[in-house]
Amino acid sequence: MNGTPLVRDGALAREGAASFPDCPVCEAPGASFFMQVGARSYWRCGHCRATFLDPAQLPVPAVERTEYLRHRNAVDDQGYRRFLARLAEPLLERLPSASSGLDFGCGPGPALAAMLREAGHCVALFDPLFFDDRAVLAQRYDFVTCSEVVEHFHRPADAFRQLDRLLHPGGWLAVMTCFQTEDARFAAWHYRRDPTHVVFYREETFHCLARIHGWRCEVPCPNVVLLQRPR
Fold this sequence. Notes:
The chain is of the alpha/beta class.
C-alpha cells in the first residue's frame, strides 16, 4: 500500500463482521461501521455521534505507557501551559476560592494541577499509569479536570459515571479533547493517528452525555467543555 491508509466503503468493510458493537460512550445499541484506515476499524454511534475504534483493537497498557512517555509535557513548559490555559481559564472563572479538585489522567507531568494550585486551589492527582493512588478516587471534589484524557478511555460510559461520582453537587467536570468535525479528514487527522486515541467526540456527544447525567453543559471555546453536576 506504499504507506497510504486504506479507506474502504462502509458496506464493503462490514462484510463478514460478526456484530455491531454498542456505543462505548452513551451505550446506545448497534453502532454503524464508519471507516477502515489501514488495519484499524472505526464505528460511529447514531445517537451521540461519537466515533470509536473497534473494541477488538484497543491498545494494551504497555503500548499506551510507551506512547505517553514520548510526550514532552514538562510542568514548567510555557508553551504547554498556554495550551492548558484554554481549559484552566474558563474553569477558574467558575470556581469559588480554595476549591478542591482532582486532575484525573494527569500523566507524568501534571502541569494543569500546578497551574490550578498556583491559583489557590487544592488539587489531587490520579493517573492509572503514573499516579495510581486509588485513595483519591474515594473522595469527592469541587472540580475534576480531564485534559487530553477522555479520548483514551476504553470504557468511556463507565469512566463518565465514575467522574460524576467524584463530584460534589454543583461541581464541575472540565474536559479538553480535540472535537471530531470533518469526516473527510478523519483518515489523515493527526489526532486519529495517535495509537492511544480510541474515542473521538463531537460537541454534540457531550450534549448527549449531559442529558444522560443531568449535567449542565457549556462549551466556552473549541475543544473544551465544562459539565456541571446538578446541585
